[in-house]
Amino acid sequence: MAQITAAAVMALREKTGLPMMDCKKALQESGGDEDAAVTLLRKQGIKTAASRIDRETTSGRIAVYADMAKPVGAMIELQCESAPVASHEEFVQLANDLARQLATGPGAKTPEELLAQPSPSNKDHTLAEQKDDLFNRIREVLKLARIIRIDGPCGGYAHHTGSTGVLLQVEGGSPEVAKEISMHIAAMRPKVVAKEDLDPAAVEKERDILSEAARKEGKPDNIIGKMVEGRMKNFYAENVLAEQPFIKDDKKTVGQIAKEAGMKLERFVLWQLAKQ
Fold first, then answer.
1. Residue 168 has pLDDT above 90, yes or no
2. What is the pTM of this model?
3. CB-CB contact of 71 with 168 (8 Å)
4. CA 202, 208, 214, 220 torsion: positive or negative?
5. Are 46 and 83 in the same domain?
6. pLDDT tens, 61-73?
7. In a domain, 246, yes or no
8. How many domains would you assign to the chain?
9. For the purposes of burial, counting CB atoms within 10 Å of the CB of 56, is it exposed (0-12), middle (13-18) or buried (19 or more)?
């Protein structure tokens, strides 16, 4: 068996972040070859992760990468087991790297396809290797639960806790306005961009409910129609992005803010952590 020095063990520990005894054992089994020891540690970590795959991932974070000039936008949901890990610097880095690579790389249809691609922060490693190395250090299951990419000009926003993320596809305007509207979406949670996007059956149902309520109030039939249309404004403001009072200036609707900025709102994707 090769003689393993304390310096070699320390160097491997600094490189991997793993316990000294694990590093020493890996070096012994690999004959003192550091690269082979790293590979061995990673394989051992993958086996351990596989044995824990059924553990619940109740925390995590959503990461967003948006670029109006490229133009592209991407969003991912990376899950873990606990809140402290969700805010860990390396976990945040991995989530951001996943979103960046999804947007700036060739794209991916599945999480597995994305994980096989190079890490933007470490071109010598794939995202899967980055994920496995992090698992080896923190010993929590990490799961890439959802990915989405939009090929078009996008603004975006992710809450600082990673609990909510928004991708907003637009035409025209500026990245600053697109981000502000994305923040509005995260806070107010509309269902659709424009009135025309609402389910006609849902709109008619709401009109029927409001009409019946007006009749019960004893309102004359000749004014019920006008009353209902007036009250429908609240329904639209609750569900339709363009009709909502802008959160930073409630004297204007989001649609007005976008129009003033020369922006057309195309579509949005709003995610919250699936386990919350």
1. yes
2. 0.78
3. no
4. positive
5. no
6. 999 999 999 999 9
7. no
8. 2
9. exposed
